[in-house]
C-alpha cells in the first residue's frame, strides 16, 4: 500500500461565528459568537484528518468586531513563529467575518513566508441548519496543506471560493455568499481539491518590505465617513485623539465636501496624513488629483483599497515612513 505523507496544518482559533452557538437550529442569525473551543471545532469535522495532520491552538476567543491592534500583533507574531517552524506546512486562522478582511490583509502585508496562511470564518453558527463553518474549515485545511497554495499570499476560503486576503471583503451580512473581491476570486476549492484561475499582482508576504518581527506597535488611524451635509466634527475628533492618519471615506471618487476641505488641509499641515478612499459599494477606484488636488494638498489616495483595508495599510506603512510620497508608493504597490 502506498504511504502518503500528510501535510502538518495548525489551526489558530480566534472566535467569531464559526465558533458561535445559538439556542436552536433555527437560529441562523441570532446566536452568540466565540463560544466553541478549537478542539471542538476540529472534532466536528473528522474528515480533516484525511487532509492533514491537524492540531489546534486557541489564540483568543472573541467576536471579530472586538479585535484590537494588540490582538492583530499577537496573532501576527504567533503566525510568524509557526511559519518559521520546520514541522508546519500551513496555517489556518478561524476568525469572525466582520473584520476578517482586515486581519487577512494585515497578515498578507507582514508575514515573511511562502507557506499557505488561510483565514476562514462562517456566516452561520455551527448549531444552525445549513451551517457553513464545517465546509469552510475543511476547505481552509485543504488549501493550507496544498503545495500549489504556496507563495500566493494570505488566502480566504469562504463559500467554496479561494479569495485573495488583500482584495476580499464582506459584502453582505446574512447570506453565505458574502465574501467577494472586486477583481474576482483566485480559485475554487471543491471536495478538498484547489482549482486556480489567477494570481495576486500586488506585493505580499515574501515580497513585502514589512515584517511582523520589526513591528512593536501600530499607530492610531481613524476612519471618517462622508455623506450629504457632512461636517468636520469626526476629523477634528480623530485628530484630537492623536490619529497619525485619517482615512477619508469619500463619496464616489473619494470626493471631499467643501465644508471639510479646509479642515483636511489644516490637519495635513499639522502632520496628519490624509488618505482618500471611497464608500461606493462595489469597490472604490480613487485616483490622485481626480476631484481633489492631492499634489497641492499633499494627500494620499487609497486607490482600490476599501476604508478598513486602507487603515490597515496606513498603520503598517507608518511604522516605516512619515513621508506622504512613500506612503503613496506603498498604496500603489500593496
Ligand atoms: N459571521 C461572523 O463571524 C460575525 C461575527 N460578529 C464576528 O465577526 O465575529
Automatic annotation (TrEMBL):
Active site: 17, 17 (o-isoaspartyl threonine intermediate), 97
Ranges for domain L-asparaginase N-terminal: 8-196
UniProt EC number: 3.5.1.38
Keyword Hydrolase part of the UniProt annotation: yes
Record-linked SUPFAM superfamilies: Glutaminase/Asparaginase
Transmembrane segments: none
Classification via Gene3D superfamilies: 3.40.50.40, L-asparaginase, N-terminal domain
Keyword field contains Oxidoreductase: no
Homology family: Belongs to the asparaginase 1 family.
Name of the protein in question: Glutaminase-asparaginase
Origin species: Pseudomonas taetrolens
Amino acid at each position: 500500500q502506498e504511504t502518503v505523507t500528510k501535510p502538518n496544518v495548525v489551526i489558530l482559533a480566534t472566535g467569531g461565528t464559526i465558533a458561535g452557538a445559538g439556542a436552536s437550529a433555527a437560529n441562523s442569525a441570532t446566536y452568540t459568537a466565540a463560544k466553541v473551543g478549537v478542539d471542538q471545532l476540529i472534532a466536528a469535522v473528522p474528515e480533516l484528518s484525511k487532509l492533514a495532520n491537524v492540531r489546534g491552538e486557541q489564540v483568543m476567543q472573541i467576536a471579530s468586531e472586538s479585535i484590537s491592534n494588540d490582538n492583530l500583533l499577537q496573532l501576527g507574531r504567533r503566525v510568524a513563529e509557526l511559519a518559521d517552524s520546520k514541522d508546519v506546512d500551513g496555517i489556518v486562522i478561524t476568525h469572525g467575518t466582520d473584520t476578517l478582511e482586515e486581519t487577512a490583509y494585515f497578515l498578507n502585508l507582514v508575514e515573511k513566508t511562502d507557506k499557505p496562511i488561510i483565514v476562514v470564518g462562517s456566516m452561520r453558527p455551527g448549531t444552525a441548519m445549513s451551517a457553513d463553518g464545517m465546509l469552510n474549515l475543511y476547505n481552509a485545511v485543504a488549501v493550507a496543506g496544498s503545495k500549489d497554495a504556496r507563495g500566493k499570499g494570505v488566502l480566504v476560503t469562504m463559500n467554496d471560493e479561494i479569495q485573495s486576503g488583500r482584495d476580499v471583503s464582506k459584502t453582505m451580512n446574512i447570506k453565505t455568499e458574502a465574501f467577494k473581491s472586486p477583481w474576482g476570486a483566485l480559485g475554487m476549492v471543491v471536495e478538498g481539491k484547489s482549482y486556480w484561475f489567477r494570481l495576486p499582482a500586488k506585493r505580499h508576504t515574501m515580497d513585502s518590505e514589512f515584517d511582523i518581527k520589526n513591528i512593536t506597535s501600530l499607530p492610531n488611524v481613524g476612519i471618517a465617513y462622508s455623506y450629504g451635509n457632512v461636517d468636520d466634527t469626526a476629523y477634528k475628533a480623530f485628530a484630537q485623539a492623536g490619529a497619525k492618519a485619517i482615512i477619508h471615506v469619500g463619496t464616489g471618487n473619494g470626493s471631499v465636501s467643501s465644508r471639510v476641505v479646509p479642515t483636511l488641509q489644516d490637519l495635513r499641515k499639522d502632520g496628519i496624513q490624509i488618505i482618500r478612499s471611497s464608500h461606493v459599494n462595489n469597490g472604490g477606484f480613487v485616483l490622485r488629483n481626480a476631484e481633489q488636488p492631492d499634489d497641492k494638498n499633499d494627500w494620499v489616495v487609497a486607490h482600490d483599497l476599501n476604508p478598513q483595508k486602507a487603515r490597515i495599510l496606513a498603520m503598517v506603512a507608518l511604522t516605516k515612513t512619515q513621508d506622504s510620497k512613500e506612503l503613496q508608493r506603498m498604496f500603489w504597490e500593496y
